[in-house]
Write a structure and sequence with these properties.
Blueprint: E1 3-7, E2 13-17, E3 25-27, E4 31-33, E5 39-43, E6 49-53, E7 62-67, E8 70-74, E9 78-91, E10 93-99, E11 105-112, E12 120-128, E13 133-140, E14 147-160, E15 166-176, E16 182-183, E17 185-188, E18 190-195, H1 209-218, H2 242-251
Bound molecules: calcium ion (2 copies).
One calcium ion (CA) binds at residues 200, 202, 204, 206-208, 210-211.
Length: 258
């Protein structure tokens, strides 16, 4: 981008030139975020002219965040969260560890998002339910170009098991460019909030006859049986039986929203 014109939130007009990577964001009057500006010039049309050059040291970092920031789900239903990059620049590979409470949640899978440019390869994928974390690492491979902007780098599927709430913490983050140089980042964690509704075995936000049918099919089963359904084990005792039916009866007719 050789020339670009922006309007700030307070209606002042700014002009920027020679942006190697365009990434400006004005909020209100004062906050301007800059990224990877090799050369930068601001002109305030109202009167003053401000010039700043060689702002390599001014580089701000990408955000890596759990999305949504607050995820809600009823007991014993599957859901997924994303790990998103906001305002990323030149990302070629990444690694992160997502920590959660294994007494509350169980990670069931992780898939690569669409942010990295293809072709891609998954370098590391570890789901550890004992300590409650997911480690995931992936990279673009030649002839892919680095990726910039915002998007999803990973989607992680969970089951909520009878328990409560849990934080989602992003740790051990490494973002690398094509030359394996480390890119700066800011991590924004998330939170899981358990909704006190049990028995929605098919995760359609209703506890009704369809769920009762599922519970009936799974009644008497334990893990490994052909008719086992973990979403019907409402007390988490690794079997579907009378107690689950009691809990189901108390919740019949309830609805919930994520
Ligand atoms: Ca249902
Ligand atoms: Ca049970």
């Amino acid at each position: 981008m050789q020339y670009h014109q922006l309007e700030a939130g307070n209606a002042d007009l700014w002009r920027t030139r020679n942006l190697q990577y365009h990434q400006l964001e004005a909020t209100g009057a004062d906050v301007i975020r800059l990224r990877n500006l090799q050369y930068f010039e601001l002109a305030d049309f109202s009167a003053d002219v401000t010039r700043t050059r060689n702002l390599q040291a001014f580089q701000l970092c990408a955000q890596l965040r759990v999305a949504p920031t607050v995820q809600k789900a009823a007991h014993c239903v599957p859901f997924s969260i994303n790990v998103d990059v906001n305002e990323g620049s030149d990302l070629y590979s990444f690694e992160f560890r997502l920590q959660y409470d294994p007494a509350v949640l169980q990670a069931t899978g992780v898939t690569l998002g669409s942010f990295l440019n293809p072709p891609t390869t998954i370098i590391k994928e570890e789901l550890n339910q004992t300590f409650g974390f997911v480690v995931f690492s992936a990279s673009s491979v030649s002839p892919a170009l680095p990726a910039s902007g915002s998007g999803t780098i990973a989607t992680i599927a969970f089951d909520s098991i009878p328990g409560g709430n849990s934080a989602f913490q992003l740790l051990d983050i490494q973002l690398l460019d094509l030359s394996s140089q480390i890119l700066g980042h800011q991590a924004i964690d998330g939170f899981f909030e358990c909704i006190p509704v049990w028995g929605d075995a098919n995760a359609d936000h209703l506890v009704n006859c369809v769920d009762l049918f599922n519970l009936g099919k799974a009644f008497g089963s334990i893990p490994g049986d052909s008719d086992w359904n973990r979403y019907c084990d409402l007390d988490g005792d690794e079997s579907v039986g009378e107690l689950d039916l009691q809990i189901f009866s108390q919740n019949f007719g309830k609805t919930w929203s994520p």
